[in-house]
Amino acid sequence: MSSRDTVLGRVRDALGAARGTRVPIPRGYRRRLTGAEAPTRADVLALFTERVAEQRASVRHVSADELPTAIAAALWGREAKRIIAPADLPFGWLAGLEGVQAQADSPVVDPGTLDGLDGVVTGCAVAIAQTGTIVLDGGRAQGRRALTLVPPYHLCVVHADQIVGTVPEAVARLDPARPLTWISGPATTGEIELERTEGLHGPRVLDVFVVED
């Protein structure tokens, strides 16, 4: 008998006759924000803005008409010269660019090329007010996961109607079979000498534009 067989045998003995029995999963947690937390839709958007800012990300509310100019100004302010975007990003979003080279993503763009770019502009699938989290699922205007994991700067556009109050509400909108990327501020870690370090496994800088259509 191998060591693996020995370990698995002990596990089976420990489980006893209960093994294979479905264990009920408690679902008594709150699925929505309470009225005290966010009495109106405007309060939900305000909470999202507050929580995103707490994550050391920049967040700004703009109208749909202001979005191209706001994106161009943000890229200029971050000194981004070369960026990439999903091939299906709405054309108008980048219509105000001057002095910034923008390219559409394609399968031939490898991680080395992505690493040499200054940033990426994408949309999102859903955003969560309670945690300040943005979720991408590879859908329209989001692209593949590498786009938002390799370049050092990420500008993400969130439409107001994509913002929900809680994680359960977000999960209800998502397809678990899709490649989900959950973003709560710039990529950080506190594992190295317990000091917060940004950019080790994703963008060091995150700008969020909330579009109030």
TrEMBL record:
<dbReference type="Pfam" id="PF02589">
    <property type="entry name" value="LUD_dom"/>
</dbReference>
<protein>
    <submittedName>
        <fullName>Lactate utilization protein C</fullName>
    </submittedName>
</protein>
<dbReference type="InterPro" id="IPR024185">
    <property type="entry name" value="FTHF_cligase-like_sf"/>
</dbReference>
<dbReference type="InterPro" id="IPR037171">
    <property type="entry name" value="NagB/RpiA_transferase-like"/>
</dbReference>
<feature type="domain" description="LUD">
    <location>
        <begin position="118"/>
        <end position="211"/>
    </location>
</feature>
<dbReference type="InterPro" id="IPR003741">
    <property type="entry name" value="LUD_dom"/>
</dbReference>
